[in-house]
Amino acid sequence: MQIKVLYFAALAAATGVREQDLSLPDSATVADALACLADEHAALAQGRGLAVTAAVNLEYAACDRVLSDGDVLALIPPVSGG
For burial by CB atoms within 10 Å, which of 29, 31, 59, 63 has the most? Predict the structure, then answer.
């Protein structure tokens, strides 16, 4: 299946891309997509200090959420401020 990945703020800066297409096997989860992306972008690899919130098709999603062909996965860094 094909999904579109969107990177926001610090994640876009760390990876050097704002969006990309990603091929995954059927029944892949958000966690599977993150693992694949971490292999491709060292900045996303665990231990780099970048926390990520995921959203699928404009709804926050847990790591066990199963993805479907054509989904849009948004990766959002933590937001702070006042």
Answer: 29
CATH number at residue 64: 3.10.20.30
Asked, for residue 82, whether it belongs to a domain, the answer is no
Structural domain span for residue 56: 2-76
pTM here is 0.90
How many folded domains does the chain comprise? 1
User: Going residue by residue through the chain (82 aa), what tens digit of pLDDT does each one get?
Assistant: 999 999 999 899 988 999 999 999 999 999 999 999 999 988 777 545 567 899 999 999 999 999 999 999 999 988 776 6
- Using an 8 Å Cβ cutoff, are 45 and 38 in contact? yes
